[in-house]
Amino acid sequence: MKKNILFLPLLFCTFSILAQSLVGENKQWYIGEVFITQPPVTTIMKMEGDTLVDNKLYKKIYLTRDTVNQEWTLFSGIIREDSTKKVWLRRPGFVDDEEKLLFDFNLVVGDSFFIDNGGGWTCSIPVIAVDSVSLTNGERRKRITFSYQFFGDMEDETFWIEGIGSQFGVLYHTAAYCENIDFGRWIRCYFEDGQRQFGQVPEGECFYEFITNTNDLDTQIGFSIYPNPASDELTIKLPDTQSRKWELFNYQGQRIRHGEIKNGDDQISVAILPRGIYLLSIKGLGVQKLVIE
Q1: Is 66 exposed, middle or buried (0-12, 13-18, 19+ CB in 10 A)?
Q2: Each residue of 208-256: pLDDT tens digit?
Q3: What is the tens place of the pLDDT at every residue in 251-291?
Q4: For a disulfide at 287, which of 51, 153, 203, 281, Cβ 3.0-4.6 Å?
Q5: Burial 126-140 (b: 16+ CB within 10 A, else e)
Q6: What single string gives the DSSP state of each residue in the chain?
């Protein structure tokens, strides 16, 4: 009898961890975007309003880069989650408007997630761990961890959190695993009902502290760095001899090093830094992406 009594709370706890929907109108995602062709910005995503396509009910997606969440733009795709915990994206009006599988939260260790981004770009990523994480409110969410490769032979891990998405975002994350593009998106913060429940940066830093709106997209890069990729020392060359402060951020936007250049150029050691992608910011001159291998 005692075994049955203990089993019921355990079953309820397991259900509460696993049964979280990603698609909903009470959510917002703050996605950091960093590309070689632009300074870092933060895009906010939300879902609002229903639309019916082929007898399937989807949510509309809205995006903004406005720091006060006023200028929302309707995204060209629609999203839904089915009863089997699979999340689908569809882009009506595009040449290929078939549904694309974004997430399958049924995966277990030993499974692989197959990705077909079109144009012959395909890959699969194996599940290496399944556990859970705690949100700010104490709620537990299922986490699936995958292994994947980037920049050829460099290996890393990525995770999905049920009800939230991938560490790389919600809409475009599959491109990161197949190395199709200069991928530069990360979930910085996730909100439910206006409350921050998850973040890969400290609270209060959901926006990049040095880029907060679209006006900054006009900033021109005014310095050069080499070699890039770097493995030992990085040379920074400025356009003049004015002293300027520099900051090095990891790809989640957390500052890990800083200093000052006084004579127009300088060298900084990167030998002890983990392999990966970083952002080098120099006050008044812009931001550049740096790869350390």
Answers
A1: middle
A2: 655 444 444 445 567 889 998 898 999 999 888 888 888 887 766 677 8
A3: 666 778 888 888 888 888 998 888 877 878 887 777 777 88
A4: 281
A5: ebeebeeeebeeeeb
A6: -HHHHHHHHHHHHHHHHH---S--TTEEEEEEEEETTEEEEEEEEEEEEEEEETTEEEEEEEEE--TTS---EEEEEEEEE-TTSEEEEE-TTSSS-S-EEEEETT--TT-EEEEE-STT-EEEEEEEEEEEEE-TTS-EEEEEEEEEEETTTEEEEEEEETTTEETTBSSSTHHHHHT-S---EEEEEEEETTEEEEESS-TT-SS-SS--SGGGGGPPP--EEESSSBSSEEEEE-SSS--EEEEEEETTS-EEEEEEE-SSEEEEE-TTSPSEEEEEEETTTEEEEEEE-
Q: Considering the entire predicted model, what is its pTM?
A: 0.73
Give the tokens for residue 79.
Answer: 């999203």
126-161: pLDDT as tens digits: 999 999 999 999 999 999 999 987 666 667 888 999
Give me 74's structure tokens: 């309707």
